Amino acid sequence: MESVLTTQHAARCPRGLRREAGNAPARVGFARTELRRGGRRDLSAAGLGRFLGYATGDHKNNNLEVDDVGPVRLFVGLPSDTVTDGPTVNSAKGVAAGLRAVKLLGADGVELPVFWSVAQPESTDRFCWDGYRAVADMARAEGLSLRVTLHFHGSPSGNVPLLPVWVTTAAADDPDILFTDRSGGRHEDCLSFAVDELPVLHGKSPLQCYEAFFRSFADAFQDFFDSTITDVTVGLGPNGELRYPSYPPGSDARGFTGVGEFQCYDKYMLAQLRQHAEESGHALWGLSGPHDAPRYHESPDSGNFFKDNGGSWQSPYGDFFLSWYAGQLVGHGDRVLGVANGVLGDKPAELSAKVPFMHWWHGARSRPAEAAAGFYKSSQKNGYSPVAKMFARHGCTVIVPGMDVCMNKQHRITGSSPDQLLVQIKNACRRHGARIAGENASLVLTHTSSFSRIRSNLLTAERTRPSHFTYQRMGADFFSPEHWPLFMEFVRSVVCGEWDEDELADEERDMASTSANANAREAQAV
Amino acid sequence: MAVATWSIPAIPRVGPPARGVLLGGAFVPAARPLAWRCRATPRRLRIGGGIVGRAGAAEMPVAGSGEVGVVFSEKFPLRRCHTVEGKAWVRVDAEPDGDGKCKVLIGCDVEGKWVLHWGVSRDGEHGREWDQPPSEMRPPGSVQIKDYAIETPLDISHNSEGRMIHEVKIKIDKGTPFAAINFVLKEEETGAWFQHKGHDFIIPLCVSFGGDLLGRKQDIDVRPGALGHLSNVLQRSEGPNAEPQKIVPDDKGSRDKGISGFYEEYPILKSVYAQNFVTATVREINGTNKHNVEFDTDIPGEVIIHWGVCKDNTMTWEIPPEPHPPTTKIFRQKALQTLLQRKADGTGNSISFLLDAEYSGLIFVLKLDEYTWLRNMENGFDFYVPLTRADTHVAHNSEKQKTDDKPSQTDGLISDIRNLVVGLSSRRGQRAKNKVLQEDILQEIERLAAEAYSIFRSPTIDTVEESVYIDDDSLIVKPACSGTGSGFEIVCQGFNWESHKSGKWYVELGTKAKELSSLGFTIVWAPPPTDSVSPEGYMPTDLYNLNSRYGTIEELKEVVKKFHGAGMKVLGDAVLNHRCAQFQNQNGVWNIFGGRLNWDDRAVVADDPHFHGRGSKSSGDNFHAAPNIDHSQEFVRSDLKEWLCWMRKEVGYDGWRLDFVRGFWGGYVKDYLEASEPYFAVGEYWDSLSYTYGEMDYNQDAHRQRIVDWINATNGTAGAFDVTTKGILHAVLERSEYWRLSDEKGRPPGVLGWWPSRAVTFIENHDTGSTQGHWRFPFGMEVQGYAYILTHPGTPAVFYDHIFSHLHPEIAKLISIRRRQKIHCRSKIKILKAEGNVYSAEIDERVTMKIGSGHFEPSGPINWVVAAEGQGYKVWEVPL
Fold it and tell me: Greater confidence, A410 or A332?
């Protein structure tokens, strides 16, 4: 009964809201208390917004480890350029309509990307949170929860500045604080991990700046933590992922599927490499990075380094270098998460961070793309293991951004293996007890099998079932007639409520006939 | 065959109307001869069976009337997938035959056109390296695949039990130097590949190769070449047989490095598609309130129809009251499942039963087994059989409308989503208790999504429908990035053929930025920036060297910054078709490139004799002065994409003018544009118009079609220069033949008449005019040309020389009218007059223009005011 009433409320209020936006918060305040009291009982078109998985949580399960598995929460990402300067919310009306639409559809919340370059654009001590706060207000007004992602790097293809201006000027004075590749190309979007603790930014170290940023965020959003913000995701590298920017400078991390190059050629990284080499008694190994690694777009075979058999990666030198390189990455993640935990640890929000989902070349023995991005463990062990261990130590959820990636022909050419990779990441997380959450790599437009893949990844009975899933992301394509109906269908197939009981038969028939569908069968066969 | 024999009697009996039916595909309900055809159909077509039945089915849906009371009869084509199981085997005969050769036999017993795709490897190294075997090893009929493999067809023979098998025999020397034979099996008809656990099969030829035979280490990579197109119809089943057996070294194989015999079998599964049909026929039974429904299919074995009925076109499944046909089960209170009865002649299954006439339709799908359901191939939904006669017509019509009538974008957007959402809800949630409430919510969701969509879509004015371009309109997919800018763009070509001479062009052009911007230009097209063999820049060498005769890279960045500061976008002139080599190869041919993109002759197309390219054949026309780049090479494309992205970022270019795009396939351009995401892009597709006996043809559809085809190949990501319009304007102005400016359908005759949003109109550029003068616009007529393109839809481009000449004031005036009246690339145009000496048109009901010496004055209730007037042209506008 309660559910029906609230639904009516939800269905009616938009008209009012549109007319007099000023009044909205008051009404929503009511909705919010409802929400808190009833737990995750908010209403949506799909009835009670619960995932199937909730039911398994309700049953008394003897396995203690599974017991704490809650429902998979569904988020939808907001456009990455929602806020690009100071107090303005871009396409605010669109965001408002989008929020309401996904709320009614049954999503639990939205993901808000927050950029360092936007929130702290001009100086070390001035922050501007107004735009982001306005968005958080809108989400709260809708009764949606919020996952805030704190990005330290803008994306070259986005409309957001790469780094705050004051960081860019520091980088102009000393370009070596930026990641640098073998040919001297600088990544203008990414500070080298080697300067984390060096006072290179106007007398402060990047780590101190990150801490100040976290603290300012926590203060600015203090009143949202109890009600709206349920998750904080810390960006640990380019594209918010813990990785090296092993793609070509100036390009976009998301579009790149090559092997990539090592990024250890800024003078600070080289200094650390030299020191490490001397300490391990191989001073000559510390003079530079591997000379025989392939270039960005070359095949792993084109240098001697990543050759499947007898490549230098298998030599003692290769192991020395890759271990150091991967260790630097884990060290960086450890430092930043440590700072984040220090500031945000007492907030009632789940801490998470993203790892890359580099499925290309995963089939090659040397896993070159992953190695260049910093994922490696000696003697062909699971390169995600040290990372998962570090995440677990900080109680940080691992976000895997590839829940939708299916094997297809294109991927096959690059030796891609998304299945194996996902299993590998899950194994690492299970071994070390790190929670998993998911995202999709891209908007599902052409490969409709991607939705069923997400679905099966979410509704799995494994212990490594994601704790939340974020569908990326809102925008014109997302709401386009080509995509939106598919997405609706997907959400409604994952979120099930009481009125769906009658549909089970239909559902089953649908699924059965899908499997009769030639495409589906072919897709399975490959 | 069956179709032909079947339609012959129909034509003479039916006469002209039926011919219309057959050719046009329109449905003419209730025509008696058609009823005859319809009745005849099931009987005649059953003879043909399978595939023929499918072909005939296209014209089948027919409503009939008359004595037998056939209300509806339709034959639906079906595609069914069934699997064939079998095995493949490998046998190695270690015993040498008379010639001292050993035999390797590879075979399989599944029907098909099998080909062995194989190679040998010389050493013990796993997996990667294949070599072609020496010719004496190749069985007859082998063909070479590139330089690493051989394909040999399997021969058909019969085994001892008389079953047909496919087998191929490879003979090898006892002391062969090869370590192994690698192979995969390929089935040519389905294009499927059969591998062993995702890897090549390996037949070891010497013991030292190791005991792990076919079960090699799991992490060996697959061959990118062979598996890139790995198709998927074949499945492997992992039966116990699939486990590799260790070879038992054959003692008789004298040396420790020698061939040992073995035999191994592998199960294989092949999926085969079969064409079938199901016919549904509904007959009225006189005097009763019942229909007789008959289903007939040629699918053998057990077939169940899973069906329900519906009222009033709701498409909501209901179960009819009892009695149900025999062998019927009720499925979860939702549907009935009726087992069809095997036909006496064994050709399939059929059933017929009675149904109350109160229902408007019957919905069904076929179920073959738990996992195999067959739906309507046409739309992927359930089959629908109308049960009332009037309904037949309506149902078809409405369905037709739904598919044909793509609603215009603004209304269509909302109704699209609404249809889909309501469809969703009506199919699913009908039975829910809170149905009304849910409908409300769904409607609200759909309204919100449409609202959000309209806001998030780029701020471009996209509301005018694109349907002016009618050919293949349905195929045009809205590209992710459509390099058409805002729709209100006006381009200035910012250089001429002499601009390189000063060596400081960028600086000079920069000083004009403010002026061009205040004139109303929104985009400037800058000269080709790369280092080039020719000073004008169109013979590029090192793409990453942006120091050219126009200035240094710093000056380039500066000028781009200046234009950005003035609020204008800058187009880079990108030469992608060809590139001049810096070095000679060992034969003295210039085809080795230098600089950051140090390609070799693999990057050069193979069909230009001058440059000895090793790439593929060109995908377009060749430009003979320089090596044409082979865009089919992956590395070339990724390098070019990277370069374009680099130029976007490094220089700050907002878009591209693409040189000589006739030289390569537009699909590659799409690739490049999607990677570099330009704000605006335009390609130069320039070929000759059609002439007959030296006189230009009136109809230039073929010419503009070629340009439109190219735009289409780019998926609409780029526009193209409207060469057609320029050519026609030449004829119009030189000979005073203004009638040419309206095509047979009363629309503008150039690309802008078909696809205005992608047409970049111009009257002169650095090639056609300037000091080259390849195709100069009729002298003294330039203003008329500008009066045409600056008032018309499409995106106009103005040539530098014209702006800074005596034409300046008139061009400025025309541009300001265009800006003031908000004419854009999709503006609506109505041609009012196209005669010998005058042409006039009305644009967006706000501007009227005329060119030519003839008389024209706009009329009508609108109070037209003269906005511009000059030699041979006049423009009126509605005062704001």
Answer: A332
